[in-house]
Each structure stands twice: as structure tokens, then as C-alpha cells.
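If you are new to this repository, start here. Below is one unmodified record pulled from the training split, so you can see the exact layout before writing a loader.
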Amino acid sequence: MSRDTTSKNRMIGSSGFVGIGYLQSSTQDASRPLSGNRATASDWFDPDVATANEGREGPCTQESLNQKAPRPCSSTSGLFPDRSESSMDVPYPINERERLQALRALKIVHTEPTPEFDLIAALAASIFNVPIGLVSFIESEFQWFKAKCGLQIGETCREVAFCSYTIMNNDALIVEDATKDERFTRNPMVTGDAHIRFYAGAPISLDGETNVATLCVIDVEPKKVSRTQIDQLSALAAVATALIRAHSDANIARTSAVNARQRGKLLSQMESISKMGAWSLDVEKCVTEWSAQVFAIHELPEDRPPSLIEAMSFYPKYERSRLKEAINECVENGTSFEIECDFITAKGNKRRVQSIGEIEHGENESKFLIGILKDITEENQQKEVLRRAAHFDSLTGVHNRFSFHDKISQMVNAGSADERGFSLLIIDLDEFKDVNDNLGHLAGDMVLRTVAQRIERLTSSNGFCARVGGDEFAVLLPANPDSRVAEEFANRLLKEIELPITYQEDKIRVGASIGIAMHASESGSEDEVLLNSDLALYHVKRNGRGKAQSFEPSINHGFEEKRHSIALIRSAVTEGRLEPFYQPIIDLGTLKMRGVEALVRVRGADGSIQGPADFWQALQDPQSARMIDEAMLRLSLKDFAQWRRVGLDLGFVSINASSICVHSMAYVDLLLETLRNEGLSPRDIKIEVVESVFMGNESHDVLAVLERLSAEGILIALDDFGTGYASLSHLRDFPVNCIKIDKSFVSGIGHDAHNTAIVQAMVGLGRSMKLQVIAEGIETKEQLDFVSSLGCDFGQGYFFSPPIAAPDLEKSAACKPPHAIPCKSLPAATTGRI
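And here is the target side for that same chain:
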């Protein structure tokens, strides 16, 4: 147990009863002021201190107001140092003489405890949620507690009293952390075992100028307070002021019924404000007494309190046994109780109440059970709102991601094998973004709520449904996992989700993809089942969407291949092993090398070369594709600038750009910056894109990027023309300068009449639209002659040269005309391209 915890427990007192000081057991001896020496640190927690001090001389007083310095607190316990060791300075108000006169005129110090003051102390402690609340009167040498909640002692010496500072001003004193306040850092109550950290006190004055007492609260832990709490403390201090004034009046006319009614009214007002009332039960006679607020909580008239049996009837049957057990334990063993229960008033209204009670011993060994009943309905409702916010999705009303992870963790770590077996379904809505883009987010919210309701309706009998992402849901099906059963359930979900959703005048249809994973009772972690369901979902989305797929080991194998490819690329970029190989682009009119296309390769530690066939999956990963594009851009332009410096006559270098880059203006900024750094012109580079970048809802981003590139003077080539899904309108609408006929068409020339006709049409289309035409994959003299006869501008392929490293390109450029480099002289991995 930590020191803070230990100290706090000790400050609560041996009864373990926190917050309602006037209900604690007290005899006349224990509640009287401590005789002889004032209470020291050890006395704070010693319930027998009163008995130990019996028979000593009366309480210390200062008869002469001219003696300003208080006598030191003596201690033999070692918990508090002597004054000579602590050197504590006590502040005194400038009107100390008048203050003491006013205090002593009240004749309140060392009077018996009264429930009104005790309730104020308890309410103050409750407001701040601290263990100690006090009504303290500051005498010349000591402070005395008229009311105390959570303490056993009745007074302390003044030199350690925080309240000595509170009475210096008319505003509340707030000490959030005493260890950081210069006034209290050396105070034994802070440095000693009392371990006070937090203090809040409001001065009490009858005339607005002379502060005779304080209402304060204490904790052993630092605490932040709100303006509302401070105001409530000041309001309670005002009530205490009225009680003190009533006490003063009662000294003059103690039997006055007016004063009695005044105190009762004040107490009733406090009870009404706090929705808390006091009750008592004569254990022997079974006679109960209720305050007005207890009647109000029960919604009963204030005629007579009901019997104990009648009072129990206000609690539902499922609560009664728990409450009876607590009461019996308190009566038989003296164990105080604090219990929250559901409650039904006389008018049938449902409430939530907190009942607190403990045993009080009266005269002739009689026993009384005394306590407090508090209506905590609103507080409980606020807690429920916070709980729902923490565990449920605010838009759809189903469980949220936090609740889902908590549930799956419980199932994985369940005690029995049957409870540990379950199926997990991850549901991702297909094309949901289109709903938001086309109909707005209100329509999207309607779709999410409807889908959530449909999923929850199908899973309500024995499953668990949660929203775990923007358009992603999860379902847990308990009992032994069975892929067939899970897939049947998933197919029912798909059909239900695909039903039309009415929004205003529109019928919205969305589909879904579902990944399924099983958790066997004997093995598997939470992370493993989550990963497997994600892999199964990823597999579905890559292979057509709109289906359900259970996880299989082969899926994991594909994922591992992709992970390996991504790791290969990232390490190659980091270690500088990614490099461009160049394939010449030949002017078919002159058969001279006009430019080159940069193709990505990875050089192994042993010097071997790996081509795209070895890492093609990384090319589909957006982050890896961006890394490749940016590295190839820098390296290719650096090589091209070097060739210019050595006099190599090349017109351009053609560089491939992935979809992720042609959606981003940052790529354009990087390209232009690299050109400037290498001293090159925009006309020295040609950017190649594939037809698929023109498809989808973000094509307007691609158009903006390509238009900016074109405005800067950079040529745009459409790669692999004829193999994608682009329409001819894209040649019209996008700033394309060149089309590259895919090698799959060129390779069929002379063997397939359809391929021959397609190539003829493509060349004719390009010439009619004044676009450059490049034939890819030329490998034979016949293919070269055919595309040349059609008027094709450029060609590239193994007939001229495979992709080669930069130094080899410089050597081959010296040949006029260029000759083919035998493929067998290059590593097999270089035969792939990107």
C-alpha cells in the first residue's frame, strides 16, 4: 500500500466511515476538547486520545491578548516536530483582539456536537469528494472543531492550522497541492504522516469583517476544484454562519421555539438542496424517525414515518436482500454500510438512492441505527450517459471500438473452453464513399445507422455487434467456431445490407465485404484472430468485393509475400540499393536513340539484380509506390544530368509515375525542385501514367496534377495504351502528348489479324490527334518494319536493347546506329519491366 493510500485510510478513522461525520460513534468524553497538551500528529489518528488525556488540566487559553505568540505544540510521538524544529510562523489578522472577543462572546467553543453543523461538514466533504470536512473555530493557541467528518480528534494547535490563513481574508482559500505552496511546504501536517495535500476553506463571519471560524475540507491527495464547488462551499459557510448566529441567540433564549424552528428550517433547506435526508431507527423498539427530506424522497406526506417493514417495501425485491443483509450486519457487528439501490416512490416513480448507516449507542446501552438517505437519480443518470459515451457509438447506437476490444479480450481469456470459441466477422461497406460524395454526409449517416440496425437485429439473439471504424463493423458469434455456420450467417448479412435504403426521394443501395476468422478454444490470441479477419477481408476486396471469405492459410501466405516485397523495397531505398535501369527509346525514322525509359531495379548485396517480378506486390502498396517514384525521380534526373555533362545526345528521360503520386501536387513540387537542382529543363523529362489513373471519383485530382505538369512544359505519355479501362474521351480531356502501344499488341503482329488491325487503328488515332506514338516490346525485324510502315514515331524493345545500367548505357550510346545487347549477358531478373 502506498504512503498516500495509508495516510488517507488513517485520516478516515477506525470506523472506515467517510463523509458523514455526525453519524460516527461518539461519547461525551471523545467529543470533549482534549485536555492538557494539544493534539499532535499522532493524536489525529488515535481514537483513544481523549481517554488518555482525561484528568489533566483544562484546555489552554490565552487570558492576556497582549501575548501574541502561541505556545508550541509538544509531541513525543515523533510525527510532529517541536516548534523549535518546525519554526512555523502563525499569521494573525490585524483585528485579532476584536476577533477573539467576538469568538468568545459566542460561547460555542467546547460545546456539544450538533447534527446541523455535522451535516454541513458532511455536505462540504461530499461536494469535494474528500474524506474530511470540518467546521473549525480559531482560538488564540488552538483550533477547535465544532463539527468533524472523517476525524477522531477535536482540536489541534493553531501553528499547524491551515485555517489560520483562511481567516485572514474574506475569500475562500484553495490549496490544490500543499507541497507546492510556500506557506505550507514546511508545515508538519504536510511533511508528517498526516500527509495533507489538498485544502479548501471558507471564512465564517457574523459581521462580514471579523472571521471567527472556517468551513473547510481536506484530502491527502492534490486536487483541482471548479468554480461551482467553491461557490457551494461559500454557500454552506453562509448556512453555517446562520447556525452560529442561531447558537448565539440560543444562549440568550435557549428554549425559544423560534430558534428551534430556524435551525430546523436551515437543516431542511440544506437537505432539500442536497436531496439528502437523515433517518434513525431505535433497534430495540423498531421505531423510525425521518427528516422532512426523507419523506420527500419517498414522496410521502410528513405525518408519520412508516415501520421498518413498510420502508423496505419501497425497494424492489431484487434489492431487499442486499439491504437487509447490510442492516443486520451493522446492528449485530457494528459494521457501517454504504449501499446504492434502485427505489420506487409512493407515487411509482423510479429512483436511485444511496443509503448510509451506522450504529450509535445511547443511554442505558440502547442502540440506534442512524444514517442518511440521498437521492442520486440525476447523478446516476449522468454516470450512465458517460458510460454509454465510453462504450457505445454515438451515431449508430451499437457498441464502439473500445467496447469491441474489451469484449473480444473477455472471450479470448474466458474461463471455460466453450466460452473461448467464437467467430469474428469484419464487415466493410463497399463504395460507401460514393454515398457521402454524391448525396452528402447526412445521407451517409442514415446509411450507417440503418446498416447498424440491420446487423444488430440479426445478431441480437446471441451475438455482439460494434462499429469499429468509419464504415466498418464487427460481429462476434459465440460458441464453438464453425466456418460453414459463420459463412451462412455472413451471407444473410450481405443480403440484409444490400436491401435498398430510403433517403428523401432516393433509394440508396450499398454492398459489403466480410472477412471471417475463427478462434478455437484451445489456442490463438486476440491479435491473431483480428489479423486473420483483416487478411480475409483484404482478400475479398482485392478479388471483387461483395462476398464473404473465411481466413485460410493460403491468404496468409499471400500476405507474407506482400510483406516481404514491401520490406525489400523499403530496405533498398534506405540502403541505397534501388537504382534505375534504362531502356533506349529509338526514333524509327533515323534509328537513333532519342531518349530512355527509367525502369526500377533492386541490386542485392551480392550484386544480383532483381526486377519487378520479385517485388510486384509492393508496387500496389501506396507508401511503397511513393517511395519508389520519389527515389526513381531523383536518381534518373541525376543520371540524365550527368549524361548531358559528358556530351551524351539524349532528348528526354521517361519516368513512370504511380497512381498515388499523380493524385498529389507534392509530387509536382518535388519533380520541379529536382529539375532545378540538376540544372535541367521540363522538356528533358516525360512522365508516363497508366489508363487506370483516369478512373474513379478522384480523377479531378489527377487532371489538376497533369494540367500543372503540362503547363510547366513536361510531356505526358499514356503507358500500356489499350489494356486499361480508359475511354477515348480521356485523350481529349487530359493533357496527353504521347501514347505507348502495349507490347501485347505488338507481339501479335503477323500472327493475329486482330492485333495487326488494333495497332493500325492506334497509330492512326495518334497521328490524327497529333500525338506521338511509341511501340513497346519490339523484338523482331518484322515487327520493326511493320510499325515503321504505319508511321509510328518511336519504338523500344529487346530488338534494340534490354534495360541496362547507367554506365552500360553510356557505352552503348557510342554505337551508331545502336545495336542490340544480347539478353544472355544480363541477369534473368532484368527481363521484367515496370
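Two things worth knowing about this chain: The two ends are 65 Å apart (CA to CA). Residues 1-72, 74-86, 817-834 have pLDDT under 50 and may be disordered.
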